[in-house]
Amino acid sequence: MNKTQMKAVVFTGREQVRIELVPAAKLIDPDDVLVRITRSAICGTDLGLLRHSHDLALGTILGHEYAGVIEAIGPGVRGFRPGDRVAGSDFVACGRCWWCRRGDHWECPDRAFFGTGTIFGPALNGAQAEFLRVPHGDVVLQRLPDSVSDDVGVFLGDVLATGYAAISRAEILPGDTVAVIGGGPVGQLTSLMAQARGAGPVVLVEPVESRRARASALGSIAVAPEDARALLDSLTDGRGADAVIDAVGGAIGLDSSFALTRRRGTVVSIGVHHQPSWPLPVQRAFDDELTLRFAIGDSMRDRDQVTALVASGLLDPMPVVTRVVPFDDAVEAYAELLAQRALKITLAL
User: 175: domain range?
Assistant: First the structure.
């Protein structure tokens, strides 16, 4: 690649983005891989950054969900070659440290998150661009099987890995009743993941009727928040959900989750938390022996299992996509998502 500039979606102010020409991504370190992006996606995390933008530098290239084709590799890369079709994790890790060897890549001292400035580590340019530099490429990237399209592969590195982590942390048994708080893309795909991994009734709690309709079409029992407890009681002889997944975050997500779980039940929070604290109902948590866990998706750890579920046809993320649009329509796509007129939009390059 000999381009000196590339197109990218950059942050220009609160709830504002623009497509600009920026210096083209290039190899820097020996273990770098340069990926020509074919699909990227706009994530709820991107929207949250735009709404809570005080820590994000102007000009940040956004995006962390991606699939593409390898353009070039550094001399230290052994697992890939140019022309390979790949997807990758939304953050990078070294793959060698004590944390990585345990499968806890999020705790790696070298962690950096694509397209989020310095919020989750050193700044790393995002994937909503023509090209992406991927440090530690042998660790971060995965080769896509022929049965998994780029349109599907874009989900492997973040939202599907997050749903898998949530259900794993919940330790559900076959037939367990699972409630999911929030009908955004993460909540919808977590509901699908729960179904694929053997849950019984999966109840998705969401105030927006159109999102409830989408969840119902995808096999969940969708319910408005005010009706959720009565529905769960009717399904469980009054016990409540065996596990509740909070895909919203903050006090709303956690309070709602605790209100729906049974005694000795489990709450797993995967929603992003922006406030520093939350008043835990500790007396009830003790009396009822509740378990509260938090989970962050890690495709470097779980990609084989997640990809197998997708490749086998047990889980199809595409019904969550409102539409795929040309990359040049990214500004309009952001506006639609910020206004909640769409559920999930991916960008085609």
Answer: 165-294
